[in-house]
Structure formats: structure tokens, C-alpha cells
Batch of 2 targets.
Target 1
Amino acid sequence: MMFYIHKAACISPQQTFGDIDIEQLHLSVDNKLYAIEPKYPHFNGNALRRMSKSTRMGSGAALPLLADEAKPDGIIIGTQVSGMEENGKFLNQIIEYNEDMLTPGSFVQGTPNTISSQIALINNNKNYNLTHVHRGLAFENAVIDAAMLINENPGHTYLLGGVDEISANNYTLDTLGGWFKKEACQNDELYNSTTNGSLSGEGATMFTVSGSKTGALAKLTAITTIHSTDTVIVRERIKSFISQNLPNGEKIDLLLSGENGDARTLPFYLACETLLDNQVPVARFKHMCGEYPTASSFALWLASNFLGNGLNVPQHMLKKQGDFNGVKNILIYNTHKMGQHSCVLVSLVE
Amino acid sequence: MNRIVVTGMGVISAIGHSVQENHAALVSGKTGIIKGGGNFPSRYAGLLPFGEVLINTDELKIKLNVTQPGVTRTTLLALHAFNEAIADAGLTVDELSAHDTALVGATTVGGMCLTDELYANTHGDTENIEYVKSFDYASVNLFIQNRYNITGVVNTMNTACSSSANAIMYGCRLIKTGLASRVIVGGADSLAKFTVNGFNALRILSDEACTPFDQNRKGLNLGEGAAFLVLEKESDAAGKKIYAQVSGYGNANDAYHPSSLSPEGDGPYLAMKSALDSAGLKPADIDFINAHGTGTENNDEVESRAMLNLFGTLPNFASTKGFTGHTLGAASAIEAVYSVLNIDRQELYPNLNFSQPIADIGLQPVLDHRPAAITHVMSNSFGFGGNCTSLVFSKP
């Protein structure tokens, strides 16, 4: 199952929204990569204040994609725990006021389907609307949802997105869980780190996708999800994914690797690299967006822009140099917390 | 056409710990909504009525042989229902771990049932560190996946009160598009300080047992529970008990307000309409509607108007929220089991606590248990964020 990506917008810790410039790397602050948010001139002040950060970023990234088109036939969002900051506020109210005299605003804004429903409100869109929350595969499951819908209705267009935010709550929880570095580490040094944990990141990436090839940025040729903590099994699954989905006579021309500076996840990324020819360049993206459960949506934005928008792969991304002439097939491989993995094959529209 | 059929079911709710116990309570009209069950820590535990599952978390762990740390009540309820469903469908260990078996579950509370522990954790206190891995929604299905080595598609969705209806819909679509041959679909939620205070702050919790579709309704009661259904292609189900067919589903958004439905009920109307369309049925084909019917001012009136707009003359309808309370992410799955029972047993169950129709609407739900010829049942679920989903189940 496949679809075409027509538009893409991304609010991330790098200059990806509006005038795109990813050559210059924006640096992390206190081991976190915060999104560079626009001013959101299209939202009124009260609405903006009420929105959680993820809803703000998600709606903000969706807006340019909704501007000059017919309403999408559905809105499909992947997020692990968007609204966690709002949940945290409500959690604090519950404990601090001993369950009395609470205001519901944070409770309502803290539910993860607020992003898709807020976009539906802005777009007055009564069509299909779904929120996937399956942790590190939340965005991938949203992609599979969109692929199934397009398979059923090739003429339809869907808004597809991946959103997560850094909140005090999830940052503390994932630090306790050992997923973020405890020592100071800047993102331009991330891959030199030999310790466990990564840097925390966030972002909102939105796509319009359909079965129509005309004018598309890129083609999402195939996707698979893998559940395993065994590098041998994961390597075999990536291998069969490539052989099953790569057209005859073609090769992977670029690997977008989710390597994140965590010593525990490195063996998976290295295992993936060994499947490719020596000449294939390898580019990494987590030093740009940080680690978050829907970071693969950031990688899909990069791949779409490399293939269809003339964006060059900046030097700071390259782990292994190679030939970028005639790049046709990009493999995105990512793992979140080692148990959840995904492969996405993104191809040039010919 | 290869139809999608229900070959197994499992449910745990305030009215019973199995399909059989739930059925017995539905037949006898015995509610599970009580004050003071005492299994979740909240100042409202003894003050407001809830649909509690009357088995405490430690007992559940022992019963289910769960010894790992960090397993939440939501997960235990899910596992309880999941175990019953797969045993009912006779799924083997090999079938469970086959690449074409999918698990799609829903929850709105997930690990957030541990409100106090989470609070301590998020403030950097490491005492309850075993729960830092299970605070999110996905933790429920990831636990089940690991326990049964499920290798196919695994997904979690959260669209508030319609979550598990979407899980059922999604499972059907995985089968239709060939991404899975069999799916285990459902949802789970446990009572939590988090949701109790959220709904209380919205002032939609009733201090008495809820009275769906009644003129004098005062709000909803929260409940907890879980349900899973095993769905297979009819061609793969030879020799198995087939309870019902999943014949239609529709998903729409009300696009009106974050926490209430539009007066016209566009979202509910469109969800019901597209479920009928996908089943290839006319409104008059529906024999019974398991309504969302939460007992809130807003939902019951809007749902009534939307049903009237679509059906003209309504078929029999009832809400089962008076038995279980509103179990949020589990509600649609639990009610899917009840809808399937309507078909399998050819009978209707009562809408409890009803005495007076809503003024200007005048609709009266089913008030008693009685036999009935049932071919097609619609089940409605409408959630915050305007997320509305309707399902249609049919006689196999």
C-alpha cells in the first residue's frame, strides 16, 4: 500500500517552517531541542492561550496545508501523549487542591485527540477523524491508516500528522526511565556521546496525502513496523522489507537513520547500515529534532523535501558521504526505546 | 465477499467479570453502579456513584498471574477481557504470534490511573519508579503484546469516548485491506482520580445513578472495565461459533466544541449515516440501537435529535450506561459485546432508571428485558473533540 505526499509543513527545533533553512544547525538548550514556533497570526489570542503546545504546533503546521484546497476527506494524527503539559497542570491541581474546586480547561485540553479535533474545528471539517497514540509507532500507525483509506478511496485527500511536545512531566518521567542523558550534551556533539539516553525533542509535522501522482512531492512506497528487542530479528525484518518493496534494479540511495546518541540503540542502527552498499550515504536527523515518539514524521518531512523540493542534505546530517545525484529511494529507519521499530521507503515521483 | 465475523468475546465491567455474568445482569436488570466500592483512591469514591469493577488491583494481579512491576489497573482489566476473548475464539499460541494477527486497543486513561504515583514521579521522586514506563496509553497494549508475543500490527487509539469503536473499525479495515487475517480489538479504562476530577470539574457527574434519555437526567456516572472481540474472516472461521457479523462502521467529527455536541448533532448524524452506508443498509433495516446515552443534558438530547433526523421513526433503542456507568475508552467495546448479545440471544435489555421522556422529544427507550427478532444493531459512541463513531452488527 502506498500514497503520494503532496504538501508538507513542519514546526521543529530547526528552521523548517516558512523559509526553510536547515544548513545552519540550531543548538539544544539544557539537553532539549525546543521547537521554533511561529507567531501564529491566524489564531486569536484567547484561542491560542487555551491550546496546549501540541495543539498549537499541530494546528499551526496544518494551517498552510488547509489554506487553498478543498477540505481534506479526513484528519489523522499520531501522537504519544500530546497535551501532557496540560495533563500535568491538571494532575497538580488534583493533588494541590485535594480534588476540590478544579477548573476543567486543562483536562479538556490534555486529551490527545484535541489536535485532530482542533484542526477539524478550524477547518469546519466533519469528515473522518482519528488519533493514534501507540507510543513510538503512533505516527506509523497514522500512516498505515492513511494508506488504507487511500487504498479504499484513491481520489481522496487526507491530512496526516505527527505531533509531540516536551513537557516537564514526560521529560522527568523519561529521564527517570533512562531515556535522556543525565550529563550535559549539546546536539552538535550528540553522536560522539557513548552514554545511554538521548536529547529530548518535539515538533509537529503535517502532510496532505492522496492517491494522485500529479504534482506530488514524493511517494511513500511502503511502511512496516517491527516489535522486537533483538538486533538479529530487526535486521532480518529490515532486509526483507527492502527486498520486498524496492523495485527491481533499484537500490536504497540514502539512509535516514534515527540514530540518537544512545549507546543502547546504536547496535540497531549499525545493523541497518550493514544491509546497504558501501557507497550509500547515511544521514542522521535526531540532532536536529531530538528524540520524541513521533520523530519519524520529521524524517518523512526531510525525505519529501530532499526528493521533491530541491532541498539539499546538509553536511551536519551526514554520517557517511556519498553520491546524491539521482537519489530515487530513501529508507527511513527509526527505533523508539528499542522495542518499537519502523521502516519507511520514500521514493522520487517519476 | 468475505464477511468479518465475531468469533470470540471477553468483558469485565461493574456488572460482571465475564460475558456470562454481564449477560445475566443485563437480563435481570441488575445495575453495577454503587457508592463506596473503594477500589480507587479519591475523595469522591464514597460520595458519588460509580460503575466499579469489584475486585481490587492486587487480587487481579494474582488472578491473572501478573508478577512484573509497573502493571496498571487499566492493563489488568484489559488482560482479563483479552484472555476471555482469545479463549472463547480458541486462538492458539501460534495464531496469536502469527504475523497476520493484529491487536488494536483503545484507552483514554492508560497509565494515568496512577494519578498520585505519576504526580510523585513527575516531580522527580523516585519511590514509584516502577510506573514511569507505563504512564502512557500505549502501555496497556504493549504489555499484552509482549505477554502473547504478538508480531503483527499493534495499535492504540484515543478519541475519547469513541476510542474503542474506532479500534473495532480499524481492525475491520486491517482485515479488509489484507494487513491482518484476524484482529483482537477492544478497549480498557479504569476509574482514576484523573478522569473523575476532570468530569466533575465539567459538572457532568450525577450524584445519583444516571438516567439516560430521561427528562430529569442529572449527568453521567463514570465506570471502569474492558472488553475485547476477536474478529476473523468468515472463511477462516469454519467450525467456530459465529456470534455476529461486523457489517458497517462510520466515523465523523462534529467540529463544534471541544467538550460538547452541536445542537443539530451533525457528528452523530454523519457517523450513523456513514455506518449505514458502509453496511449497505437503510435506516428501516436497523432493529435496535445501543445508544451512547450517557445521561448528560447535552448528549441525550443531541443524540435523540440526530437519531430522529436519520431514522424518522426510531427502532427500539436503549443505553446500557445505567448498568456499567460510562467506561470511556472501554465503553464502545463493552457495548459492542452487548450489541452482539442482542443478536446472538435475540433479545433486548432495558435502559435503566427511565421514567419521563425528554420534553419536545418524547422518545422512550426499551424498559424491560424481552425477546425480539434482531437482525441489525447499531451501536453509537460520541466523544470529546467531536469524535463520533457508529458501528453496525448483523446476524451472521
Note: Chain B has two domains: 4-236, 249-394.
Target 2
Amino acid sequence: MSATEVLSASKRRRPVHWSSPLTYALALAIAAVSIVPVLYVVLGGFRDTAQLNADPAGLPDPWVPSTYGRVLSQGRFWAQALNSAVIALGTTLCVIALGVCAAFVLARYTFRGREVLYTFFTLGLLFPAGAAILPLYLMLRDMDLINSYYAVILPQVAFQLPVTIVILRPFLLAIPTELEDAAYIDGSSRLGFFWRILLPLSGPALVTVGVLAFVTSWNAFLLPLLVLNDANLHTLPLGVQNFSTQYTSDTAGILAFTSLAMLPALLFFTLAERRIVGGLQGAVKG
Amino acid sequence: MTQTSQSLGSANRAGARLAGHRSANGSSSRAARTRRKWYEIIGLTTPAIVVYTMFVLVPMGFAVYYSLYRWRGVGPPTEFVGWRNYLVAFEDPIFRDALWNNLIIVVGSLLVQGPIAIGVALLLNRRFRGRAFFRLLMFVPYVLAEVTVGIMWRLILTRDGSADALLKSLGLGNLVQGWLSDLPVIIWTLLFILTWKYVGFAIILFLAGLSNVPHELTEAAAIDGASWWQIQRHITLPLLGPTIRIWMFLSVIGSLQVFDVIWVVAAPSTRSLGAANTMATYMVDNGFFARLWGYGNAVAVILFVISFVAALVFQRFVLRRDIQGALTGRVG
């Protein structure tokens, strides 16, 4: 994704037509396969366990909203949602700050070793986060960071940096040199150009990498599982998993808890879908 | 440096660049500018370099070191065992089973998701009313947390759960399996769940790639009398090549380190019987929970080397044309 593309995307609207029935049938089938299991969980939360046992695949009859009420009135759900939010937000802000500075240098400075530095960062795309988890845990333990937000935020920032830089660099490269020269003529320094012109112009790209970082962090499981032993610090994915193994017989409760845990990601995603797709596109073309 | 001289310097530089003009005292101010440039480069990149090095690169180095010891994680490692941990891993039938499962997931994901996603993307690659809405729905599984997806399918596929009830009501009761309890069946159940979760991602990626194929090309071919299939086969698909290759790369790397869904869906009892492990779950079970830190780190190194080699081979032979200069040096 480049700057010019983002600018022209809105102009590209052409009239939209109805398509052939086959296209719709196929689209509908795929969409149904994607969404029906999710609907089952959401609706299942409105049934009580007796209904679920009698007919596992039925619809709520009657609707029982009390299960959702029970989960929502637990302080635990809210505490976990808050932990997830703090960690995801912290990760996102740090990734954007560190990533855009590095990408700026890699895009707008000419110096010996620039491509080496870029390769150094892209190498991170090949490092599976999962493989490093054990030594990472040991290192965080030695740094006395276990059971703190930092233990999740710092590694997440580090592992998110490569893809952030890979998406941001071409975007910053595409901003015309004329703008930079004009800024210098008007007496701006390079940092002034970065701060006053480049950053405001890169809004769309920053939102894209931000959304990717946020969703990745919000859904993370393995790292929090190892480094957050204190139940007060648990994030939503840990909470959902613990709830589902602790109250195995409370199927309705698990369904309600699970769908409530899905809700923020779904809402956030619906609002930012275009950005996520844009980011993936950017990463592909990177 | 004061604000004025600073901006004068920049103005000079811009002037010099625009007009090819050199000021009389160019050499000393150029040296100052170079020094300043390097301060900026170092100041702006150091935080990223430090965090990235410390939490991505250094841990893998430590993993290699720890993997050579028998170590319970208390105090510094002292009992050096050389390559023993690696030999033990490759002789453990449960680890070999984990490797085999990873292979099934890698190949299965490519063979199942690829054709489905390409087919669907080609058919949906036209603007029609409601496309954005369908695209949104198809993307839902990808955005949900792996853990939520795992719990969801665990509930649906549980014995006499809604999946079994649905099959029975359709008169397909004889297809009902112990989806999560029958040891040979579990890995295929897991592959199904992973496909459900990630095929939407592939479709979206391909649709994005297809939107970059110029209309002029396909329209020109249509005018020349090419059939829909010929257009897809000879124009659209080749142009989609880079997107497909990058998707394959992401899919392979993801499949090799898959953890969350397996961990949540496959009960610990089935994993300890060696039915549904992957390298990552095996590593966490042994390294973290059984506190065999040296051994767990050896498994981590094996997982890392396999992923890294797969990635490099892919880079070298498949992606070379797509990510120019990223890892294999500039091409063209």
C-alpha cells in the first residue's frame, strides 16, 4: 500500500451491480460456514444448561438472559478485559512509536548500512515467536518482570516490530521528495519535516499497523499463559480458557463468557476491517 | 547549534540539492551536517534495535546455550550434556508424533485452504452489491482469538454435542466420531478447526491481490474472445502468483509453530498419549510445565531451525522475485 493508493482509493468508486445467483449462493455458503458456529455460541449463551442438554443444536426457548448477566456481574470478567486493554494499548503505542522512527530512518535517510539494517529487521519475520518462548520466559524471570504488564508488552512490541517496519517503510518512501525539499526551503530541519509533515501524512498507515498490533496482542495466549501467573493480571484469553476448564458442567456459562470475550475483538474489527485488509495488502506487497 | 543557524544549514542543504550549488565553507558545515545526520539516525533507530535484539534475537541464543545442559531452571545450568537433549527428543515417539502432526498441518493447510481460497476469491472477484458485507463475515474467524475458537469448537464437537446432534438429524448418524477423544481422529479435527479459522484470511488476501490485477488486461482478453476460464488461467492466476506464494510462506511458518488451538482443543490426557501434540505444545509441556528446561530449550531450537530453514528455502527459491532484496540480496 502506498500513499498515493490510499489517497486515490476513495476516488475509485464505480457503480455497484447485483451479481449472478451463483456468486451469491457461494458467498452465502462461505459466510454461513464462517458465522454459524459463532452465532451458535452467542445464542447458546441465552439458553440454560437444561435446554442445552435436551437439544444441543436448538434455539433459545425461552430466552434466558440471566447467564450473560451472571458473567457480566462478576468482577473477574471486567478485570480481565481491563488487563487485556492495558496490555494491547501499551503494545500498540510502543510499536507505533518505535516502528515509525526506525521506518523513517530506513525510508528517508541515505547512509552506509541502511539495507543491512533493514534486512536485520526483516529477519525477525522468520523468527517464530513460539520457538523463543522458553528462553524469553527465563530472561523475563531473571529481569524480575514475571507477573507484570511489561513481561507481555515488551516481547510483543519486539515481535511486532518487523512487520510494522515492513509495512511502514514503503509508505514513507512513497511520500514525494518535493514535500521534503519544500520543508527544507521553509527552514525546517529533517526532524521537523518528520514531525510536522511526515507523521500527519502517515495517519492511515499508522492506523493500519496499530490495528494489527492491537488485535495480535488482544488475542495473544501463549506468552501471557507463561508470564502471568497472578490471576489478577490474567487477560481475557486466559480467563476464557480457565473458566471453561473450571466450570466444565456450566455449558451455558462457558458459552456466555466466550461470546462476551469475542465481542470487543468483533466490534473493534468491524470498525477497522478496511484498515486490517489494507495492512495485509501492504504486507504482501511490502 | 542555534535555531537560526540550524535552519540556515538546512536551507543551504536544500538549496545545494536543488541547484547543485556548493557554498564556500561547504566542507566544515557538511561535516557538521553529517555528524548531525548520524546522531539522528542513531537516536531514532536505537530504541527499536535494542528492544528487537533483546527480546527476539538474544532469547534464541540463550536457547542454544540452555539446550546443551540438563537443567531444572534453578540457579545457573551446570550439568553439561552436549547433544544428548536433541538425541532424546528425536528418539521420543511422542516428539516424532508431534513432528508428524506438524507436517500434516503444514501440508493439509496448503492443500485444503489454497484451492478453496483461490476458487472462492476468483468467483467473488467482481464488484457486486453486498460484497463488503460478505467479506466482513468471512473474515470473522480470523479475527477471533485462537483460544475462543478452540473453546467454541470444543463445545460444538463434544460427544453428543450440537455437531453430533446435527449429523444425526440429517440422517448421517453413522458419521459421528469421537472427534476429540478418538486418538487417530483428533489431528483431523484439529486440521478442520485450523482450516475454518484461517481460510477466510487466505480468501481476503487473494481478493486483495486480485484487486491489483488491471481490468484492462482481462477486458482486452475478453474482447479477443478468451473464455472466463482462459482469462483466469492465463492472466489472473499468474498475476496472483506473488500473493499466493506469500500466503504459502505465512501459512507454512504459522503451521510449524501452531500452539493455541491445539492446546485448548486437545485435552492434556490425549496429548500425553501422544495423539495431538505439535512441536510447540510438546515444548511447553516438557520445558515449562515439567520443568525440563534444558530439554525444552532443545525442542525450541529444533522448532526454530526447522522454521528458519523452511523460511530460507522458501525465500531462496520461491519468494525471490517477490521480496526483492529483503534477505537474499537485491535481484534485478
Note: Confidence is low (pLDDT under 50) at residues 1-24, 324-332 of chain B.
